[in-house]
Amino acid sequence: MSLYGRGHYSTVATHSDRWGQFAQWAKDNGVKDLATTPNQALLERYAEHLQTQVMSGDIAVSTAQNLLSSANTTFLALRGDHRVRVSPSQYAGKRSNVRQTAPTALDTDKVTQTCRALEAAAYPARLPSCSWLPRSGFAVKKRSRRTWSDGIVRRPERAL
Length: 160
Description:
It contains five helices and two strands; from the N terminus they run H-H-H-H-H-E-E. By secondary structure, the chain is mostly helical. It has a two-stranded antiparallel sheet with strand order 1-2. Helix 1 crosses helix 3 and helix 2 (39-56) runs antiparallel to helix 3 (61-79). 13% of the residues are buried.
């Protein structure tokens, strides 16, 4: 089981920060010891608290979902099971901000150049790292046996 992004610093720091927000909320609500508190009921109360904040416009749906997801992940790490868990989308709602155009900050020439440099340096193990291209506004033509980057073209602007 891989928790916290396999130990990547920013992922660990993000979960830690979000767990800290949960812990502060719990402390403010009279919880002194998680070991003696019914965790599921506590997590559900926290989810309802975040739901109220979303409904009042104090926080975004994505923020509430992220906070609940981190609480779920931390309880999984602490307990070693999925018994204490809430559905972030059930409490916070569905995210509504859907990207309509491909990211404009992505430099297609730089991506192609990077893929070609990887191929030239004989890093075939690194080539799957270019697999995100189709999801980022790039189309991939039929893969050439010779080089991966020959098939990269810019997709026309359209809704993703």
